[in-house]
Specification:
This protein is an alpha+beta fold. The chain has two domains: 192 residues; 136 residues, endopeptidase fold (from Nostoc punctiforme) (Alpha-Beta Complex). It contains 13 helices and seven strands. The strands form two sheets. Strands 6-5-4-3-7 form a five-stranded antiparallel β-sheet. Strands 1-2 form a two-stranded parallel sheet. Strand 4 and strand 5 form a beta hairpin. It comes from Pseudonocardia ammonioxydans. InterPro entries: NLP_P60_dom, Papain-like_cys_pep_sf, PG_Endopeptidase_C40. GO terms for molecular function: cysteine-type peptidase activity. Pfam families: NLPC_P60 (PF00877).
Length: 346
């Protein structure tokens, strides 16, 4: 009996140890080569192999990603929802269907590894409270359906940044962690659905070479965290940028001083451009909560084709918004754009 007990203890210890190693591997898998594709766009390079797109994501994990996307398509969930779901599963389980050493039933079901976080199991690390029985949570399609059902209950989720939408579903102890997976998720979703990146979906080169330098400088900061009050002419401060700080940094490339405050940006570079068709790459697009200059609260750098580079909000990163004119939030809040090189600007 003592020998059997000792053997059982060793086996349990081995399971826990392996679970610990797996969790460490998952947590450390965020670093790697840049993800191909176009920033903020659900698309993949022509002929891309999904299993070769994201470092650390192999064929088995891509199969799980395919089930997540397919479930979203079946439920009529828009592309943004696929990206939220994939980014969540990438962060929670590295797209592996994990059992849990604390949930004996899960060890008897098909799995791709063993974790030990409370009673969390499956691709989304869903817990018993609020998510259902073990078999459902350990089924990739069923767990994805549970995730989408919860996401669709979040008011205005379609306009929320990926990290915020994911957090409202998951209620994670690490709410900012999902952001780093957004581009990888968008590229992987594009590859799975056969959506190829084309030149018409990318930023439009600026007509003025000087302004292209501004755009290039700003684009180089993609992935920097949002930090309230962050950024100056030399780069990120406090660990990142806020929306106007990114503009300060971008235009310092050509010696133009931009105020570090959105309403001051509006006032400094009048006249404003309110016709969307007249806005050019390198213009600063501004957004107001009440349609008046006094309600201006956000600014981004226009890239053409409806795309905008910006630092959205706490918990997110500097990134490209793929189509502001089709986004209900941005299209309704848009008040106008200003051009820093306008000869009549103050």
């Amino acid at each position: 009996m003592r020998a059997a007990a000792a053997s059982g203890a060793i086996a349990l210890g081995l399971v826990l140890f392996l679970g610990f190693l797996l969790i460490v591997a998952v947590a450390g898998s965020g670093a790697g080569r840049p993800t191909p594709g176009l920033p903020g766009v659900v698309c993949a390079p022509p002929g891309a192999d999904p299993a070769q797109l994201v470092e650390g994501i192999g064929p088995e994990q891509v199969s799980n990603a395919g089930l997540i996307v397919a479930t979203g398509v079946e439920m009529g969930v828009p592309q943004h929802g696929w990206v939220v779901a994939l980014a969540t599963a990438m962060q929670e389980s590295n797209l592996q269907n994990l059992a849990n050493s604390n949930v004996p039933e899960s060890l008897e079901l098909p799995n791709q590894g063993v974790g030990s976080d409370h009673d969390s199991v499956g691709l989304f690390q869903q817990r018993e409270a609020g998510w259902g029985d073990v078999a459902t949570r350990m089924d990739p399609r069923q767990s994805a359906r549970l995730f989408y059902d919860a996401l669709l209950q979040v008011p205005g989720w379609e306009s929320l940044p990926v990290t915020r939408a994911a957090q409202l579903v998951q209620v994670s102890a690490f709410p900012d962690a999902y952001a780093k997976w957004e581009q990888s998720a968008a590229t992987l979703a594009g590859a799975l659905e056969g959506v190829e990146c084309g030149p018409q979906t990318g930023p439009t080169p600026a007509a003025d070479p000087q302004i292209q330098r501004v755009v290039d400088r700003a684009m180089s900061q993609q992935g920097q965290p949002y930090v309230w009050g962050g950024g100056d002419a030399n780069g990120p401060t406090g660990g990142g940028f806020d929306c106007s700080g990114l503009m300060v940094y971008a235009f310092a490339e050509i010696g133009i001083g931009v105020p570090h405050q959105t309403q001051a940006i509006w006032n400094s570079f009048q006249p404003a451009i309110t016709d969307q068709a007249a806005i050019q790459p390198g213009d600063m697009v501004l957004f107001s909560s009440n349609g008046q200059p006094g309600g201006i609260h956000h600014v981004g750098l226009y890239l053409g084709n409806g795309q905008m580079l910006h630092a959205p909000e706490t918990g997110d990163v500097v990134k490209v918004e793929p189509d502001i004119w089709s986004n209900t939030y941005y299209s309704q809040e848009f008040i106008g754009a200003v051009r820093a090189t306008n000869p009549t600007a103050a």
